[in-house]
């Protein structure tokens, strides 16, 4: 074993007892530090928050559909599936660890997410603070407050009314046979205990205890522990014990105590930290799915902790429009129809027009999505207009249009006011893109002006108003709120139902006009 004088000698082995454990070839955690500037550290923290938000949303989307098959396939532990489906915890995970690597180009990449039973807490908080003081001469940032935030949030919300009434018991449990697990649990327990002591007047009746996993008693009404002074019922249980092991845990008489514990958590008889569904978030298959979804701007924007700004989304929309435009022209040529006329445009000219069409369609439809049932209802009419006008020209895309309408109608069943389902940017941008594709595949791109007239008027005014103001410093439409549906609601007093009905009537008139011109 490599052992020489280093900053590691400053570490307290009571906090990190496995520094010189025989399992490691070199001293633990590391001899060589990675120096980070403050801005680079903040960048990694930002990336970690965004990745966690995306992965949590993806995991919850998979779980909330109530479909057993994808969870079985992704999780590969069918025994856990029913408990994952029943887990309605507020958060997918409470404490997670993200492992990054930095490639030769200086890009940070997440290689692993431990959302179920993350270790390395003493190293990340205490050890890093020691290293920071040793190498940089600066004190730590005091991140323990963030580490115990899941517990403090529970005390301020869910458990607030119980504190002075019957007291609250928070127990942190781990397998004492594993030094690393036990040390991590004790570190977290001590951090929480310090917080409770510092706020004694508020949390006098909050008890924080450590327990061996083997000493927990699982009963029909909850989880219990005897700390030597008597048996007590646990309100919050932090378990540093992986679910893939917990699901197979049985008592001496064969009772499935692990599965019963998960069931008790789902029945709200004990609060489990981390919850059962946390295992989905760390699955490598989920990371692969998230990587695949990187092409969907809306999904990641909806999931992000900080929404993407207009410039980022506009730029991504432009890239999508360019790629789609080049692809379209490579397979379809430059011939354009306008009513009864047919003509060819120069490649460069048509490409620019296609890019404008796709970019504008994506964004005007997205801007119109602001009232329950509005954008999806208009999209049904607009797509239906293209199908009625250019059924033969669309070919297979006509079939796709019918499927799209069916999906929108199913969505509208839940989106009708009061809405129980929202599409977000992922849905509205997809609708805009599909409408542009229909216009192109029909070989009548100018038909978009009538088939999507309400989208254009409602959504484009806001884009024009903001663009003139930001880039030309010219104020237009000063007395008009945008999108236009906001103006008629807030200035003219229209109800949401009136907006949807009247916008549909206007679009129906525009669509009828197009059909008359075509036929």
Descriptive account of the structure:
This protein is elongated. Helix 14 crosses helix 15, helix 16 runs parallel beside helix 19 and helix 16 (374-389) packs parallel to helix 23 (496-518). The strands form four sheets. It has a four-stranded parallel beta sheet with strand order 4-3-8-9, with helices on both faces. With 519 residues, the protein is an alpha/beta fold. The longest helix has 27 residues, at 38-64. 55% of the residues lie in helices and 10% in strands. The model has no long low-confidence stretch (mean pLDDT 86). The protein is built from 23 helices and eleven strands.
Highlighted features:
single chain, alpha/beta, four-stranded parallel beta sheet, three-stranded antiparallel beta sheet, elongated
Question: Can you give the mean pLDDT?
Answer: 86
How many helices in DSSP terms?
23
CA-CA gap between termini: 86 Å
Strand arrangement, major sheet: 4-3-8-9
Low-confidence stretches: none
Strand content: 5-15%
> Portion of residues in helices?
55-70%
Radius of gyration: 29 Å
Taking the sheet with the most strands, its summary is: 4 strands, parallel
Q: Could you tell me the number of beta strands?
A: 11
Tell me the structural class.
alpha/beta
Shape: elongated
Summarize the structure.
This protein has 519 residues and is of the alpha/beta class.
